[in-house]
Amino acid sequence: MTEESKKKKPKLSTSELNERDQCLKKLQEGGELERLKSVLYAQVMLQRSFKDSMQEQTREAVQRSGGISEITLDELARKLVKHGKQSVAPSIEADLKSKIRQKCFGA
Questions:
Q1: What is the pLDDT of residue 8?
Q2: CA-CA distance, 18 to 12, in Å (whole number)?
Q3: How far apart are CA 39 and CA 32, in angstroms?
């Protein structure tokens, strides 16, 4: 089993989708979503390894595409977002999930 297939998310049921949508709406209405994004950004950017990894990934993507003039911004963004999501430290991810649960469900 590849690393990518391990990380694939299971499909959500209708009730789970509704619950997720309600949680997102609650976070957006209270301004909490933007605050959580800011906290996540700050935590991730403090990781030196994350910044170095993203810089290296950018260089590699540009080189593989044949140079800076040969890669589109959309293509580069797709590759970097995928890598960036996979590179967030598990402790940061767990902390963010805990904060979301607390804000949405009071748990």
A1: 64
A2: 10
A3: 10
In the structure encoding, which two tokens stand for residue 49, read together? 């390894």
The C-alpha atoms of residue 76 and residue 87 are separated, in whole angstroms, by 16
The model's pLDDT over 68-94, given as tens digits with 9 standing for 90+, comes to: 899 999 999 999 998 888 888 899 999
Q: What's the whole-number mean pLDDT along residues 1-15? A: 65
Q: Contact at 8 Å (CB) between 103 and 39? A: no
Q: Where are the domains of the chain?
A: 16-47+92-107, 48-88
Alpha helices by DSSP H, listed for the chain, are: 3-7, 14-29, 32-45, 48-64, 73-87, 90-105
Within its chain, how far is the Cα of 97 from the centroid? 12
User: Backbone dihedral region of 84: left (phi > 0), alpha (psi from -120 to 50 degrees) or beta?
Assistant: alpha
pTM of the model: 0.66
